[in-house]
Amino acid sequence: MYRFLALLGVALFFAVAVRAQTVDPLPSWNEGKSKQAMTRFVKTVTTADSPQFVPAAERIAVFDNDGTLWSEQPVYFQLAFALDRVKTLAPQHPEWQEQQPFKAVLEDDMKTVAAGGQKALLELIMTTHAGNTTEEFAQIVKEWIGTAKHPKTGRLYTKMVYQPMLELLAYLRANGFKTFIVSGGGIEFMRPWVERIYAVPPEQVVGSSIKTRFELRDGKPVLARLPEIDFIDDKEGKPVAINQYIGRRPIFAFGNSDGDLQMLQWATAGSGVRFGGIVHHTDAEREWAYDRDSSIGRLDKALEQAQGKSWTVVDMQQEWKAIYPSQQR
Amino acid sequence: MYRFLALLGVALFFAVAVRAQTVDPLPSWNEGKSKQAMTRFVKTVTTADSPQFVPAAERIAVFDNDGTLWSEQPVYFQLAFALDRVKTLAPQHPEWQEQQPFKAVLEDDMKTVAAGGQKALLELIMTTHAGNTTEEFAQIVKEWIGTAKHPKTGRLYTKMVYQPMLELLAYLRANGFKTFIVSGGGIEFMRPWVERIYAVPPEQVVGSSIKTRFELRDGKPVLARLPEIDFIDDKEGKPVAINQYIGRRPIFAFGNSDGDLQMLQWATAGSGVRFGGIVHHTDAEREWAYDRDSSIGRLDKALEQAQGKSWTVVDMQQEWKAIYPSQQR
Which of A13, A169, B182, B252 makes a 20 to 30 Å CA pair with B200? Predict the structure, then answer.
């Protein structure tokens, strides 16, 4: 009886071991150069007797969000939130009927909004993102993200995250990596939902921010959101923010646009083996196709430097079996 | 034989279980109100069927550093670093022989340094903390912290961390808490050594900061440290920084001075059960005794509010069996 149990145990052990080897952690990635490069990198830094072994505490991976973890067309989803918010708030602001850029937003006249440039955009963001407390804003974001749908796909925005990237995040974490988001988007716009969607906790989210102020209201402490830019987490700002928030240089970085160029440079210039990755939007049919000439997510310099720096450029159309969750599988 | 092994296994299981119950996770704390309050709190939030159960992801604990995790007398240890640094750099700055506040530092004339007030202090900090890259500065801190000794105790500064607080940090982590430092001290002064000493990784350290700038030097990216304040993580700044860096309201906060008042208010005003703790420096013999009248680590308003808010005030002299590591045990 004892011998039988022991044999059964050995058999089970091998069955599990073999299964562990054969389950593909990245099923939505076609076999190809990107998948190979990523799995080779992870194997190299996690193999204990490898000269390139990296202790778990130093396995920091950073991901841009817009265009890297979810779509960003035809406008950044956070802008869609701001525009919806203007419409929601309009009844309390009759003056907006005659006042730009609000008038244009209420008339769905995106041409006029765009013509307002940076100044109009900033005004829209400040009006819709400030003037409340951090807890009130989180609640507003949660309600929007739980109901608003994308005009082209009809999907919830959270259903427009990339299935292959969800798998990559999970694969890295299963290999001892700590995964961070480092986005040009608003830090407090992301935090209310990224834990549920990406399994990235709020303390591992870095982004652009407006200033807040501590106040006691009727003896109750609140953080008031002020209409003043605190930090823009884009381009040269990304390595600055990575240093400020994380305090360690990532060994793995993924982006999709020139806004991620300096983050990729910073992460991959460290000592030892490094991984830099770029999502190249090449799939006009299943998602969007754009790079050098796009005003949103422009990918020009980073694409140019990718080859010399040995960054992995993912051809979305060729390498991704699925784009969004539950689309194929 | 099989039955014998099974019985042995059961016996071992119980031995381990009993031992787990009897090993005291806080051996340097005397049995008393603080130890009771902490263990009761931890039990309450970690008991799965407790109405006050808190999921592990939300078990955020924040600790001030100076005076809470290590000593801060007769001057903040970071100021001792700055003064030492002035002396190290003096040969390259002959002009300092005649220029305040440097002249006073070189002559160990602390009265004159203090008389220079905020302005002199800021000049000392900027001169000694900026003008290098983040990697160079980390190296400078590492070298200093590895060798410099405290003038009164003769100990390395890292041997002046509080043994009871090291145990508390470990106890919280063993119960699923994520421990953060939220200090008025410089974030880049702490990060090079806190992981080794407190087992708190750099990405869980929040502090005051100066600005940095991304630069390519001979094609190599660096972050240059600029002589410009970025953020002061003190008083009202602490809840602001907690929100910015962590994005979740802590359920457990520990400080020792009025600089921690707003952090304690913010953490303990959240919903559900909360813990606020204050280290009260009452031990003139083994450490220092100071509160309301101290210019360093002044504890006045926070002490006054402690009772009404049910914060736990630790009487260092009465409640701590040991102050520093390997002192008693």
Answer: A169
